[in-house]
Task: structure prediction
Amino acid sequence: MSQFFTLSVIVSVVASGIRLATPYLLASLGETIGQRSGVLNLGVDGTMVLAAFAAYYTALKLDNLWLAVFVAFLVGLLIGVIYALITVSLHAAQGISGIGIFLFGLGFSDLLFQVWVGTPLPIPSKLPPLGIPGLSSIPQLGDALFRHNLMTYGAFLLVPVVIFLLQKTTFGMNVRAVGENPQAADSLGVSVERTRVVAILLGSSAAGLAGAALVLQGGIFQANLTNGLGFIAVAIVYFGAWRPLGAMAGSLLYGVVNAIVLQLKAQGTIPRSASDLAAMAPAVITILALVFLAGRVKAPAALTKPFTRH
Amino acid sequence: MRKLLGASIPILAALVAFLFGALMLIALGASPWEGLRALGSGAFGSSDRIVATLIKATPLILVGAGISIAFRTSVVNIGGEGQIVAGALLSTMVALAIPDLPRVLLIPIVLVAGLVGGAIAGAIPGALKAYASVNEILSTIMLNIIILQFMNFLLRGPLIDPLEVEAGTRIPQTERLSDNAALPALPGSRLHLGVAIAILAAVAAWLMLWRTPLGFRLRAVGHSPAAARSAGIKVERHVTYALAISGSLSGLAGAILVFGSESQRMVTDGSTAGFTGSAGFNGIVTALFGGLHPLWTIPSAILFGGLLTGATNLQRVLQVPAALAVALNGIVVVFVVSSNRVRARLDALMESRDEMNSSDRSAEPDKMSEPEPDTFFEEVKPA
Result:
């Protein structure tokens, strides 16, 4: 264990923890917006895996990473349209319809992968790390914090953007209003449906970007690539008490623990089986946090409730 | 007429899913007609295929019946995957501990161990919901992750086959478990006792829900927690029971997956789906398609089991990946929950959930006097 705590190992664990937090952060920021408007989307994982495939296929065939990101965004947006139709227009129960989206994304991405690609090939180039001039040359700190790819920077820059969006803009006020008291918002002339649809679209396209970040950082696609990551992103929203900063903290927790587990596996200082136990930690912490937060933090009052005008 | 409409929703959903499947087949350059034939013959074409379908349907029946019980109590159980694995792990450990017990004793013991393992995995999120107000959707998902990692830990560490360590291959699997725990099969066939057990369990779940005081109390909690509370029912305890019972049926499915398998051991590929075949999620589809009624989950599970075995034939004959079945399952879910009748039921479910979570614990008498939301399938009788 002693060799784990060298400075260079810590720097690399922090650096990869931040990188691994990126998909969690993008997905949970998007889901935060959706849930603040009163809509739970359990389909994040399916959206992510389908968008990840779209990004992977684009990158594989055209070797254009930004086009790949854009295609993943579009896939997220499209699934968002479907989800908005189901839950806002048709008033379907949100928890279960999310499971439908999840199964669809899981199966459909696997199907397309097998038909169009078959054998897993790595994409020609992954997202390159980009040193921030000046900052990246700070010893240790520079390597840990300022040598990341643009999607990682973008995800973390989105945190203040989402805070501003929710707290300072009319749209954000509407989102919070329809999530807390849709009847009152409606009587004040806020369109509950339209606000929720936009919130769902933002959330779902963020899930698409999260899928792109996952596959363009890793460089390869396989069936069930996300392996539950999208579900964790939903839990992070609760963990983060429906606040963007909380989502960031939760995402970093998962990213860093994943990085530690990977590091332990690579070093081989502890048996492989023990690193499986370490991988349980974030889920255990999440449950404990939920127990602690229950009763202390209020969920958006209208979460999971379809709106009908009385 | 209303009942006919209610019954037609799953059929409509299935038709839409098939239509979508046909479109996908056309897009993939295969004839939808041949696809349907390959699917049908793969699922029900010979006695061997029918047996394969029934074996695939077995965990779906159990998980689906369990999920029906949870949903009827207004509890959403997304932890089927973890509960299956928990049951499988506990029954595996029991079989490793007492391998030499005679068959008549060991088989019931490992099955009960499966029930207990799943019940524990279900009772935890149940109690967390009832006594600590932790959303069960989240806790069941988190528990899926925890149990998955625990399985990987056990099968790579303490429970690994000593032969794998000796050979240095270290495939994460247990040794071959005692033959005394193997579920008996019909001679010359793979059809094992687990299929009958699953059907009996679904019937028992139905009897429990509609013919026992416990079932009445569970449904009362599901209908209106506030009213149930004012009638003297301990709501918290029954929420815990519902998830524990639901989990126990999934756990039984896990034990049957181990002791009905040909390899007669537990293996992990690092995911829960590798062991469960995603039965924990597909069981939700089965339950919804069966109208959240334990008896109707039996034909529903056979249909979805057939879709899964048929899809492997589709892959062999037309080179269309079997993942098509998973995508179609998702579409079925979306359509079933979007359609009116089930919507009404799930709305009622969500409404009573909110009541349960609200701090206002006073009774709402008008809730009780409301007519039953709708009876979907529960009393389909000839007119």
Notes: The beta strands of chain A are 130-131, 147-148. The longest helix of chain A spans residues 7-36.
